[in-house]
Amino acid sequence: MHGMINRALQGFIVETYGKDVWAEVRSVADLRFDEFEAMLHYDDVLTVSCFEALTRIVHQPELSVLEDLGTYLITHPPLDPLRRLLRFGGASFAEFVLSLEELADRGRMAIPDIEVPEITVRQIDVAEYELIAHWRLPGIGALLLGSLRAMADDYGALAFLRFVSSDSGGDRLNIVIHDAHHAEGRNFVLAEATL
Fold it and tell me: Are residues 168 and 89 in contact, defined by beta-carbon separation less than 8 angstroms?
């Protein structure tokens, strides 16, 4: 797993639960270093071990922690470049949802060796979408659920998102946009004005 993904997990643990919990996670997962390096690659076993250690230590279900991690990736101020990169997907939340099929290619353009889930989106009607995500580690649906809820808020959209299922065909989410302009979204401009 790419070090940037592991660094995001580490940052989430420290920011959400504290440095003591990170130290305990490192101990339980038998990490032989203090922190992940962003530009290195790590065996998937280390990522999974850290995550499983966290859920045991904080006594929370895996899907709940993954959803919180997804929200953290979008809302944590130091990760604002990720949110801004995602906002290039469309002027509205609906356009953004449809653009998620291009996420893997856009991610690889930014960081050529990063692992990004493959996503397909099917528009059911004018306001409803089905999203199917494939990734080599389990739980991508819950992580996307948290991220997409945060992105709906970012756009100011009122949307209902739910995890439908997980099987060999991928993790499925259902997205219904009730009001595209429910609230004022976060400020986003493509470029700063020049003087």
Answer: no
The two beta strands, 118-123 and 170-179, are unpaired
CA geometry: angle 12, 13, 17, nearest 5 deg: 115
Q: What is the DSSP letter of 96?
A: H
Extents of the domains making up the chain: 3-60, 91-179
Query: Residues 4-20: pLDDT tens digits?
Result: 889 999 999 999 999 99
- Global pTM reads 0.89
3-17 vs 44-58: helix crossing angle, rounded to 10: 10
Q: What is the pLDDT of residues 17-40, one digit of tens each?
A: 999 999 999 999 999 999 999 889
What's the order of all strands across the beta sheet hosting 118-123?
A: 118-123, 128-134, 170-179, 158-167
**Residue labelled with tokens 């059911």:** 124
Residue 172: enclosing H or E segment and its boundaries?
strand 170-179
Contacts of 159 (CB under 8 A, 6+ apart): 93, 148, 149, 152, 175, 176, 177, 178
The topology under which CATH files domain 91-179 is H-NOX domain (3.90.1520)
Name which of 107, 189, 180, 185 is nearest 153 in CA terms. 185
